[in-house]
Design a protein that fits this description.
The protein is built from four helices and two strands, in the order ββαααα. The protein is mainly alpha-helical. The protein is globular and about 40 Å long.
Length: 106
């Protein structure tokens, strides 16, 4: 289980324990495919909607909870170098234009 900090309506921040819910696509104990798919889905979401799009956090929370940290470090390094080995992600990026950067209103 992990923790999530949630901002309450009155402005305070509360910490809740959190774990991903059951996903019927992955009934087995092997979390590798589930981890990989959540990571790719998060990358696709931020590619299409932009870094600041809050619903993308759903995928991020799931892959951060399920994936081993060394995998995430490796994948983020591969993404930075442009050599992430996912045909699914490459096809997605070719099909859809990248979202414009989200500007902060300050």
């Amino acid at each position: 289980m992990g923790f999530r900090d949630v901002e309450m309506p009155d402005g305070t921040v509360k910490r809740f324990t959190w774990a991903p819910k059951y996903d019927p696509r992955y009934p087995a104990f092997n979390k590798g495919p589930k981890c990989t798919q959540y990571f790719i889905d998060f990358q696709k979401c931020i590619w299409r909607k932009g870094e600041g799009y809050k619903p993308c956090d759903w995928f991020r929370h799931h892959y951060e909870h399920v994936c081993p940290p060394p995998w995430l470090e490796k994948w983020n390094d591969q993404l930075d170098r442009g050599v992430f080995p996912s045909k699914q992600l490459v096809k997605w990026q070719a099909k859809f234009p990248k979202a414009a950067p989200v500007e902060d209103d300050e």
